[in-house]
Amino acid sequence: MDIDTLKGLSACPLFKGLTDEEIIDAMHRVRYRLLTYKRGALFAMVGDECLHADIIISGEMTATMMTLLPTIIIQ
């Protein structure tokens, strides 16, 4: 695991209070993958099944949900 990934995970509330060694150990116990998205990329669609947890290591994400009506809900 590279230092930038470890730094990003350390900032995540899920790993709050854990040492770097504990985070590394935890990540060695699970199967994970690192993905990169370009600005403006579609991350998920309404109705998509959620199969795993996603943690943003760096950058930011804005979630917008479209309803069946022509309305935009920003959360």
Distinctive features:
75 residues, alpha+beta, two-stranded antiparallel sheet, 23% helix, elongated
Arithmetic mean of pLDDT: 86
What portion of the residues fall into strands of 2 or more residues? 5-15%
How many DSSP E strands?
A: 2
What's the SSE pattern? HHEE
Order of strands side by side in the largest beta sheet?
1-2
The N- to C-terminal Cα distance equals: 32 Å
The coarse silhouette is elongated
Uncertain runs are none
> What value does the Rg take, in angstroms?
16 Å
Structural class: alpha+beta
Largest sheet geometry: 2 strands, antiparallel
The DSSP helix count reads: 2
Percent range of helical residues? 10-25%
Explain what the structure shows.
With 75 residues, the chain is an alpha+beta fold. It has two helices and two strands. It has a two-stranded antiparallel ribbon with strand order 1-2. The longest helix has 9 residues. The radius of gyration is 16 Å and the shape is elongated. The mean pLDDT is 86.
